[in-house]
């Protein structure tokens, strides 16, 4: 990466920023060096994960949080990996990006990512895009993802605090998310709290919290919002800020970042091992042998063992 | 694996079957040999993936399909990786397994799998459990998974046909699933079709189908059901059987299985490479170096590169 490019990025040149993110998404060969050079500059932003089931109103909530952050003169980047979300506003079968009111504000940068074609690498890609945006010096990075699914859960494992958003109808989703994002939730939001059932969901969350209190450093707060009306947003943002300050002071954020770094290095080692293994010779050995392996009814594990022994 | 154990399995000994699945889930060291021996016996079952958003009624649908299969004297195994589903009946925050009416029928075997703690390996684990059940000689294996999320989508990539279930309220989910399970859907079900909105969803699906018809071998049928009332189940099962027969005849199922085998071998190679790399020496090198790497602001990719170069 030329220092010129890095300078443009540090000066918040949106055109350069968008180009780099596209290069990351396309997996351009030349991108890894760039990612390495900007990584040291990506560490100052506080990262907030926002997750929850489809239809919980995460995008509206984020839109209102941006307003709140801007009112305090903060800068913010958003990476959204929920395909129904944010720019698209959940429009049914509409892929069109609806530009929103923040798009002309240089202190705000929003990027929606499709999940198509990134099998196995969605979490890595999201972390990289968040790094690129953070390297422009944004105060906050919000990472939004639909909170159902394993790869999606992994995405919010690389942030400083996690906000989990439900709606009064989310009973089933709470069950689904128990083994995932809820375990790492630091703040719980019940959005659309004017609807029937908010009390019940609040009670379910409290029960869940007291069941799991032994595994937690602190008891997450539950905040009621009506994002479309802007209700509860100020309180939510205040709680985010208070909590981030507390967790910085207690060393928790440092601890989390260290763990995240370790886990990213491990995953990068696995990617590197796979990338080095599959050169074109080995690829052609695989393609030559695969039919025979299948016909001999070798299990995939025997086949893999054989390939690694022979070629490794 | 002793041939005795394999025999018990082939004779549908449920106790042995359940024990083996638990060993697979626990990742017992001794299990890989067993999986290798039973793999050749796991290939006769036809595999049906059933996927869809939470609350689509997949578990009720499967319950009714089991009745249908039993009425034809078929045998069936179910692997369910939707944590709200089937045995638990979607009971809110209730982890208790509610035994159902099929549990005493030796021709039916149902296994629910939690997704907790299987990060990165959920698809592999599901494939293994499906293999183990299939090796008892079941005619059909149904693999159920919540159709939101990348790892979850991978799960249904290892079946012969995929049924995607929606409800009239599923507009948002259709959007989310477009880049995932919908691309591999062979039959679409609109369950709870008595509710308002069924026509609209049906239209959305038809639009989607005609948009993507160029990428498809055939146009998937849309079937309306009311699973709780048993309505449409016979038609759904008839369509599953017809389609499987057609796809067997056209060679499509063979082609899919070949691709699935290739993909499983590739993934097993990656697992094997990672497993061989992380011996205890390398693990301790990592733990010794990680703090320094972080302090030098090495990106995870530089750190990984360095580790693989040094240790590989």
Structure, explained:
With 312 residues, chain A is α/β, with parallel strands linked by helices. The first copy, chain A, has helices at 3-10, 14-25, 31-38, 58-71, 122-134, 150-155, 171-177, 198-211, 233-249, 252-277, 280-295, 300-311; strands at 46-52, 76-80, 108-112, 140-146, 161-166, 187-190, 221-224. In chain A, strand 5, helix 7 (171-177) and strand 6 (187-190) form a beta-alpha-beta unit. In chain A, helix 2 packs antiparallel against helix 5. The radius of gyration of chain A is 21 Å and the shape is globular. At the A-B interface, helix 3, helix 6, helix 7, helix 8 and helix 10 of A face helix 3, helix 6, helix 7, helix 8 and helix 10 of B.
The largest sheet of chain A, given as strand count, sense and whether it forms a barrel, is: 7 strands, parallel
The residue ranges of chain A in which pLDDT falls below 50 over 5 or more consecutive positions are 84-99
Give the radius of gyration of chain A: 21 Å
| 3D shape of chain A | globular
Number of helices of chain A: 12
**How many strand segments of chain A?**
7
Q: Which pair of protein chains has the largest interface, and what are the residue counts?
A: A-B, 79 and 79 residues
Q: Give the quaternary arrangement of the chains.
A: homodimer
Average of pLDDT of chain A? 85
* Beta strand % of chain A: 5-15%
Sketch the topology of chain A as an H/E string, one letter per element: HHHEHEEHEHEHEHEHHHH
| Termini gap of chain A | 33 Å
Widest sheet of chain A: strand order?
3-2-4-1-5-6-7
Relative helix content of chain A: 40-55%
Secondary structure class of chain A reads alpha/beta
């Amino acid at each position: 990466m030329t220092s010129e490019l890095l300078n443009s990025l540090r000066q918040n040149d949106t055109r350069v920023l968008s180009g780099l993110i596209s290069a990351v998404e396309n997996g351009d060969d030349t991108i890894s060096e760039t990612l390495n050079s900007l990584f040291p500059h990506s560490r100052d932003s506080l990262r907030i994960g926002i997750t929850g089931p489809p239809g919980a109103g995460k995008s509206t909530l984020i839109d209102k949080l941006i307003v709140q952050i801007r009112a305090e003169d903060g800068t913010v980047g958003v990476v959204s990996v929920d395909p129904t979300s944010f720019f698209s506003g959940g429009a049914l079968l509409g892929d069109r990006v609806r530009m929103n009111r923040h798009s002309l504000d240089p202190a705000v940068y929003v990027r929606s990512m499709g999940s198509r074609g990134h099998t196995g690498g969605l979490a890595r890609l999201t972390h990289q895009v968040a790094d690129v945006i953070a390297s422009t010096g944004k105060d906050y990075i919000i990472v939004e993802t639909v909170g159902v699914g394993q790869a999606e859960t992994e995405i919010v494992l690389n942030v400083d605090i996690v906000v989990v958003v439900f709606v009064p109808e989310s009973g089933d989703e709470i069950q689904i998310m128990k083994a995932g994002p809820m375990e790492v939730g630091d703040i719980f939001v019940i959005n659309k709290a004017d609807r029937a059932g908010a009390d019940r969901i609040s009670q379910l969350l409290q029960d869940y919290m007291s069941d799991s209190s032994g595994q937690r450093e602190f008891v997450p707060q539950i905040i009621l919002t009506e994002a479309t009306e802007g209700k509860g947003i100020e309180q939510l943002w205040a709680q985010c800020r208070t909590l981030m300050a507390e967790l910085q002071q207690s060393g928790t954020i440092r601890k989390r970042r260290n763990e995240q770094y370790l886990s990213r290095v491990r995953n990068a080692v696995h990617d590197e091992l796979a990338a080095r293994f599959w050169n074109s010779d080995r690829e052609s050995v695989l393609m030559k042998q695969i039919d025979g392996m299948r016909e001999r009814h070798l299990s995939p594990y025997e086949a893999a063992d054989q390939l690694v022994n022979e070629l490794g």
